[in-house]
Amino acid sequence: MNMVKQRFLLLILGISILSTALVIRAQDDLFIVFIEGRDLGTAATSDVGPDGTSLFMEMLVARGARVARITPEEAIPVDADAAVLIRPTRRLQVPHVARLWTFLRSGGRLLLAVDPENYHLDSTNARPGLERSRLSALLAQDYGLLIQESFLAKDYFSTETIQNLYTNYLLAQAEPNGHPVTETLQHYNLPIWIWGARHLQVEPVGLGSTAIPLLYTENAFGETDSTIFADARDATIIPTPLEFNPAVDYAGRLTIAALGHSTSNASEVLFLSDSELLQNGYGLMTDDGVPRYPGNYVFAQGVAEWLVGFPADGGRTLPEDFTWLAIDGNGDDWSDQVARYPEADASLPSATYRIEQYRMFRDDQYLYLRLDMNEPPGAVARVNLRFDVDNDGLNDVLIAVNADGSAQRTAGEVRSFSDARFAVDEIIELRVPLRVLPNLQRVRSICAAFTVENSTEEQTPCIRGELLIRQAMTVALFDARLADEILVTAFSYERANLRLEPGLEFPRITATSNGTVFAAIGRDAAGEWIQVQNARFEGWIARFLLAPNGDVMQLPITYTN
Q1: I need a labelling partner for 140 at 20 to 30 A (CA). Which of 20, 410, 438, 475 fits?
Q2: Are residues 384 and 415 in the same domain?
Q3: How many domains does the chain have?
Q4: In percent, how much of the chain has pLDDT > 90?
Q5: Which CATH number does the domain housing residue 104 bear?
């Protein structure tokens, strides 16, 4: 039967390629087609809901592309520059694959976003059948993309949480290879959110092909048993427990997006193993017009740029709503609007190191500080910030950020935290999460401790006074606290109260908005209250107000009455 299908495929390919060769493609008009229809159960550009791809289509239109929709039963127009197929939930048949391959043989670009086999999507199960349609074999042979039948999971995922898209999420990263699609993600170390993905292996150089990975995740495993998902058609079928089996499952650095190039006809295939990356209610979700997941928004821009052929102006932009600042020791991305010059310098004029200028501001999650020195600051050991909380003229809180990235808050007791950032090159740059800072508008002193060559002593140039913290109206690009932890998302019709301790009788710290994400760091003994933390806040939220991406009973008990 497979041999019959292959011959049928080759016949269709031959006839279609012959007809395509008789047509001269227009080069002055970017034409992109979306393959959509019930035959494959795909995502649709006409759908403005969470499962739709209307926002991604708008990105292409904004770049001057002419966009059209065709059904899976139609041939891809010969004048199309690129074709897009997102989230097929039904099995691809040989004729579908033949039309895709005919298009690629003419030198086109193809974007495929395909979820794992049998992946549970609330009301249906995704069954694209890449293996049975021979698409996997063709992608491996001609583009070096080896699509695996797997589902990426963390060890704290549970059989229950993977059945719901809203509790089936984790973070991924861009490969540091300088590719234009992910260049901005790499530069700013922006994470990507994914909602269930398979993985693929990449053959960098093949017979007639080259390929490059774009996105990956680590510390996850690739589950190969597709029966872990519930059956949307039969509720009596009990899913197989999710667990890592080292004999058959994958582990390590797993690729979730890659680009393959054919050296014979210059065609390209960009494969995404998670369709939610480009869907309205997931990767491209917005809150009052601001992207909830900036990394996903930037990645979608890069994919759109690739589809239209990377115009000269590029796509390395974010909305003005974000703090566009890298902590890398280079001050080129600092605005002159936040410049400040110290009124006094406590260091001696003869000192080796002196602070000549500082800049400081905060956004919704972090305090940012820049120090310009009279000498290259390579010998810096740490930076100290002191605050007077009760306005008695004495410094009550000390924040110390060390050159190795470690940090402490001292206010009667020493408390370490790991999500500060420190960089030294031409300047000194710091980023400190607001949750460890006093809720004040001023810093009493800023000191930089330097080691002096051939000496055991330190030089500590300082700036003292009422040092104003400017308030930026921008939003932080990402929350560094949300890394490799059980994550929880606050879901409430109104707001979820964050409390000082677990219980309704304890003071409310703040009311979190719907969709706020925290790292879960502990629980009470019953698991009814979860201790959470992000860059802005730390406290306790009732379990029933949270959508966790894992088993919260694995968390340590951090509160006992």
Answers
A1: 20
A2: yes
A3: 3
A4: 75
A5: 3.40.50.880
Enter the tokens of residue 80.
Answer: 């199309």
Residues 235 and 360 in one domain: no
Same domain, 176 and 238: yes
pLDDT at 8 over 60: no
Pick the last residue of a domain from 471, 498, 524. 471
Return phi, psi of residue 482, to 5°: -90, 70
Asked whether residue 314 is assigned to any structural domain, the reply reads no
Q: In the predicted model, is pLDDT for residue 23 greater than 50?
A: no
Cα separation, 411 vs 408, in Å, equals: 10
Segments forming the whole domain that contains residue 520: 487-559
Residue 321, domain member (yes or no): no
Contact residues for 265 (Cβ-Cβ < 8 A; gap 6+): 104, 105, 106, 107
| Sign of the alpha-carbon torsion through 284, 290, 294, 297 | positive
Nearest to 286 by CA among 128, 50, 449: 50
Same domain, yes or no: 360 and 437: yes
Is the separation of the CB atoms in 109 and 65 below 8 Å?
Answer: no
Alpha helices for 199-316 (secondary structure H): 294-307
The average pLDDT across 81-89 equals 97
| Residue 225: partners with Cβ closer than 8 Å, 6 or more residues away | 240, 245, 248
pLDDT band for 311, please (50, 70, 90 cuts). low
Report yes or no on whether pTM surpasses 0.85.
Answer: yes
| 450 in a structural domain | yes
467 and 491 in a common domain: no
Residue whose tokens read 């933390």: 533
Distance from C-alpha of 458 to C-alpha of 447, rounded to nearest angstrom: 12
- Tell whether the model's pLDDT for residue 468 goes beyond 50: yes
Give yes or no: residues 157 and 285 share one domain.
yes
* Residue 413 and residue 288 share a domain: no
C-alpha of 39 from chain center: 31
Residue 319 pLDDT? 72
Q: What are phi and psi of 453, to 5 degrees?
A: -60, 140
Confidence of residue 1 (pLDDT cuts 50, 70, 90): very low
CB of 202 within 8 A of CB of 212?
Answer: yes
What CATH number should be reported for the domain holding residue 336?
A: 2.60.40.1190
pLDDT, tens digit (0-9, with 9 covering 90-100), for 193-232:
999 999 999 999 999 999 999 999 998 999 999 999 999 9
Instruction: Determine the pLDDT at residue 340.
Output: 65
Phi, psi of 386 (to 5 degrees): -120, 140
